[in-house]
Design a protein that fits this description.
alpha/beta, 7-stranded parallel β-sheet, 13 strands, 17% strand, globular
Length: 369
Amino acid sequence: MMMRVLIYGMTDNLGGMETFILSYVQRIPKNEIQFDLISPFERIAIEDEIRKMGGTVIHLPNRKQHYFSYHKAFDEFMKNNAKSYNAVWLNDCMFCNLDVLKYAKKYGIKTRIIHAHNSQPMGSTSQLIRHTLNKYQIRRYATHYWACSSLAAEWSYPKCITENRMYTVIPNAIDIEKYKFNDRKRREVRKALHLEDNIVVGNVGRLHFQKNQFFLLDVFREYIKAEPKAILMLVGSGEDENRLKLKCKTYGLEQQVRFMGLRQDVPELLQAMDIFVMPSRFEGFGIVAIEAQAAGLPTLMSDVLPKETTVTDYAVRLSLNDSCETWSAQMRAMLNKMPKCDKSKQLKKSDFDIEKAALDLERRLKDLA
């Protein structure tokens, strides 16, 4: 009998969680497990892919704008459909909303998974308060506790869960072949972007306080003193974009910083880069650090990232307390010692090969049912 899992937490933005879910779901045979989505968003970023794999997407009223309608619709759906599901799976960066677990318990779904994807608050003060209150309600509603890293688990779950190691780390695995270094593709992309003669410093992520691109601009301004033909490629969008562009103008870097926006061709853009720099203030995991290493990139990241992200010998960690000069010098040293090359063998020996990880997750879900 085919297993059915209901997933909550996906949004209209193709972020880390959405990419994570899609990577796994695409590799688990649809005749073994059917994954459905339920969400208060009008459109979900991975909606088309889920439907193509036979899954159902249920849209609830907007929770903020239509609070009572949202709960009425959620309760009615679970009342009528709970018996069809073997498990519910809540994914979130902050546990501000446990509704899917509450309704699942109310209507008898025995396996209720909660999955932590971050290690610091990233919303408003009110969201942090809700997360903190819910943190101590989790055991009333969830039956299984997952996290993208031990760091995320330590922040998201109460001590009674973490000290007794009641949680499971599910690796943010990737398709290594998709990111594998390819010199021909690298030359093609660099030519198309008119970057043949430049050192390309790359960063992929939401333009947001968490990702710390303001500090990266300071580091880059220092770096171009030694490498004046360098280009900084920022891939992503977010609330900090206009202020970052203003800072570029203030620094006189408008021609040397490229704002690429949201892209569907991140693997190709990684091929074009020479070094990847990720000075995040906090990360639950930081899957793009794995993607960058898979692309054979020297990867310089802040030491707040989970240690699990150091997979190859091309990964170096620095403190955000270190100066821009120190970061810049480290970039130059890495580029001198670490020519871009194929690192796929190192990645395949790790836990981050999606082919192996998807098989493990499939077995894990079936064991829970």
